[in-house]
Amino acid sequence: MPETASAVRELSFGEAIREAIAEEMRRDHRIVLLGEDVAEAGTTFKVLKGLVEEFGTGRIIDTPISEPGFTGLAVGAAMTGMRPIVDIMFGDFMTLVMDQVANQAAKIHYMSGGAWKAPMVIRATMGATRRSAAQHSQSLHAWPSHIPGLKVVVPSTPGDAKGLLKAAIRDDNPVVFFEDKISYTKVKGPVPDGDYVIPLGVADVKREGRDVTFVATSSMVQVALGAATMLEAVGIDAEVVDPRTMWPLDERTLIESVRKTSRCIVMDEGYQRYGVSGELVSVIQEGAFYDLDAPVKRLCAMHVPIPFSPSLEDATVPTEADAFALARQMCNR
Amino acid sequence: MQTNVELLTEDTGVRERLVRMYRQMVAIRLFEERVNDLYTRALMPGLAHLYLGEEAVAVGICEALRTDDYITSTHRGHGHCLAKGAQPHLMFAELLGKEAGYCKGKGGSMHIADPKTGNLGANAIVGGSAGIATGAAFASKYLKQDRVAVCFFGEGALGQGLLYEEMNMAQLWKLPVIYACENNMYNEYTHYSEATAGEISDRPKAFGIATEIIDGQNVREVYAVASRYIERARRGDGPAFLQLNTYRYHGHHVGDIARAYYRPKAEEEQWRAERDPIARHMEYLVAQDIADGAALHAIEQEMAEQMEAAVAFAIAAPYPDPARVAEDIYA
Fold this sequence. Notes:
The complex is a heterodimer. By secondary structure, chain A is an alpha/beta fold. Chain A has two domains: 10-192, Rossmann fold, CATH 3.40.50.970; 204-331, Rossmann fold. Chain A has helices at residues 13-27, 51-55, 67-79, 94-105, 108-111, 142-145, 158-170, 183-186, 219-232, 251-261, 276-288, 310-313, 320-331, and strands spanning 8-12, 33-35, 60-62, 85-88, 121-126, 151-153, 175-180, 188-192, 204-207, 212-216, 238-242, 245-247, 264-271, 297-301. In chain A, the strands form three sheets. A seven-stranded mixed sheet of chain A has the order 3-2-4-5-7-6-12, with helices on both faces. Chain A has a five-stranded mixed sheet with strand order 9-11-10-13-14, with helices on both faces. A two-stranded antiparallel sheet of chain A has the order 1-8. Chain A is globular and about 60 Å long. The mean pLDDT of chain A is 97. By secondary structure, chain B is of the alpha/beta class. Chain B has one domain (12-317): Thiamin diphosphate (ThDP)-binding fold, Pyr/PP domains (Rossmann fold, 3-Layer(aba) Sandwich), CATH 3.40.50. Chain B is built from eleven helices and eight strands. In chain B, strands 2-1-3-4-8-7 form a six-stranded parallel sheet, sandwiched between helices. In chain B, helix 1 (12-40) crosses helix 11 (293-316), helix 4 packs across helix 11 and helix 5 runs parallel beside helix 6. Chain B is globular, with a radius of gyration of 19 Å. Chains A and B meet through helix 3, helix 4 and helix 5 of A and helix 5 and helix 6 of B.
């Protein structure tokens, strides 16, 4: 954590998100938040609870159920002097806003030769195992990561979530910020008091180790850390690296870790096929090829529409046991 | 929905305005004729969607706007950009892909944008700018700037859901935005009646939005009605929807030459002969003794010379350095 911040408290992932938004809104009156049931309801996840009491309905704005509509409106507002945050309740609804995000927000700066810019944040959720079935469970962070002009953030801890969200809000570009909905209440961690910003494009080594690197994103960071603890028992010292942002991507930190450990498993809750894991593996093998003792492996969501039944859904997401077994196999121990 | 469009022609300011609108329409026509020429001579890359025949719509509306008001434009957008104050030589430079163009050659014909004149950009997704225009109106209201945003779109955009989501929020929140629907009757190569159920004007009315049907070939009527609703929006009384009936003289794009399968030649000839916005306005100016034929001819000459110089500038201008291709992706 940066040294400028003083006291450190324990907050949940959701509380850290709320605190980042509140602090930024106090700092900059151009920030408004638009989304479905974000005001009095504080979103369906209650993450924004209390914000409307402080900032009023003129800044915490309940919209109709019109994701493309309020996202497009935010693009225009961002271009003309505001810094809107839009709330996409379920990341699955990225499908609905992709024209406004990928064709409008992402491109206006380039298409206009740098004349216009769209400083906005699109907050969306991700993550399965809430028994919400195929249209409320996907992790679609690969989609915006594919588009030049967008930045994509996938925080894993409360401390990172707060610092990265503040950076996203202050960024002059459209930033898509994915929040793992399971982490909102389940993941707690230290968050420094006061104002601090984590720059976009800086990976974080969550645990140091010598034998194998887990490069893990968002929800998979906790899974990788759990597997690393299990691996201690069999004498395997695992490193866990969290890229924190899909773009900009801190390629150097990933490559340096794998050059040290010579083995790597990329863990991501997005679909494996044509997902961000493929890009991460490519970057790592290109940069660390001569130091690798084994092909880089992946653990990602199964390529299936996410099923409802708990017994089926749980089979689609990588677990600590999966990561433990694969790491042992790669290390021959 | 008849509107009294008789302007007080004894007023000097009004007389100047009437002549200025003539000049602007002529400028757009001459600009577009040169685009057609450049394109057919293979000097212009990409696509060209001409605004010929629709000049009165952009000119009448933009005449009612302030420089700091906003517009969003379309793939058929040269007329909007010029009417809002874009400079022809920088437009031509952009159309030819030159560094000197409005977007440094990165946007082209379908993406002219210019913050100095409030042009938020032409958009090549049909209906795609409805959010941007409505968002600009939202910002204007939130930041207490009393600016109005005009969203230009063709009747083809009536098939896009985004437009209705934006109109709903604009009316709920009384945003200062004008939805300017240019009904040139053809969604690309399809007559709009084959794609549009019910009456166009019933759609905005369903949201309670003030709606007018306007003769888009009469620049004075366009100006008079647009002024009224733009000032109404500026006062905080909410959005309006203007249906501007007009006609696209050329095809969907320059290459769309054999059009008989979707619209009769006689129809095109009739619109040109009987309803041309520039000819009609010229007759009015002469009949009302606001300008004589010689003065109007002089304007044409002046505009023609300006366009020739603008084309020459653009042709002579250098292409962007390929080494700069990755600039401007991020702010």
